[in-house]
Amino acid sequence: EVQLLESGGGLVQPGGSLRLSCAASGFTLSPYVMSWIRQVPGKGLEWVSAITHYSDDTYYADSVKGRFTISRDNSRNTVFLQMNNLRAEDTALYYCVKGSARTRPYYFDHWGQGTLVTVSS
Amino acid sequence: EVVLTQSPGTLSLSPGERATLSCRASQSVSSTYLAWYQQKPGQAPRLLIYDTSSRAAGIPDRFSGSASGTDFSLTIDRLEPEDFAVYFCQHYGDSRTFGQGTKVEIK
Predict the structure, then answer these.
(1) Segment B4-57, tens digit of pLDDT
(2) How far apart are CA B42 and CA A95, in angstroms?
(3) A45–B92: do the CB atoms touch at under 8 Å?
(4) Which member of A45, A78, B5, B24 has the lowest number of beta carbons within 10 Å of its beta carbon?
(5) What is the rounded distance in angstroms from the CA atom of residue A37 to the CA atom of residue A94?
(6) A27 touches chain B (CB under 8 A)
(7) Contact B32, B96 (CB under 8 A)
(8) In this complex, which of B44, B50, B90 lies closest to A95 when CB atoms are compared?
(9) Which residues lie across from A36 on neighbouring strands?
(10) Residue B45, preceding peptide bond in cis (omega within 30° of 0)
């Protein structure tokens, strides 16, 4: 069974940093694109970032470009999201999501349960 | 970038009725790369439909997807109590954007 377990969320002050982790199990991480998608509770879904199977390419939403960095460690079956210079508008539930393929086009076929990031003073 | 507009915002129906949800793209897009996700309160989204009309593993056949030009539809035949949820569409051809969601609620 595919499982994605996020961790690392919490309360942080504006301008602070957090590092999210996503531990994957039930499948081998390496062949697939992995993404982070966020959601303000009760609102819609916003794609944040993606990384291709061998970390050759990374992609970011304009809203986080230059502040967030996605990475992966295929040997540990883990994906990371380093979030710097956090803003109040980054407050959301962050989902780790598995892509259906190694490159585009791909849909999101498995989602973690999410980790909550709250940016507030 | 493609904008996906879902309608209606809320659909109020009774169990056993048919639900038809719409997702319209703002520009010409491939009719192949459309996915639908279901989200229940307190849960992560779950893939329902991919490639516009293919059901994901374990999804019952009362769920179906279709396309006509830039208009995509998700139909749920004979609503079951567990189908009342929020549904999001997503086009994954050249973008990663989602529609804003349609809530299917019990009338």
Answers:
(1) 999 999 999 999 999 999 999 999 888 899 999 999 999 999 999 999 999 999
(2) 13
(3) no
(4) B5
(5) 6
(6) no
(7) no
(8) B44
(9) A49, A96
(10) no
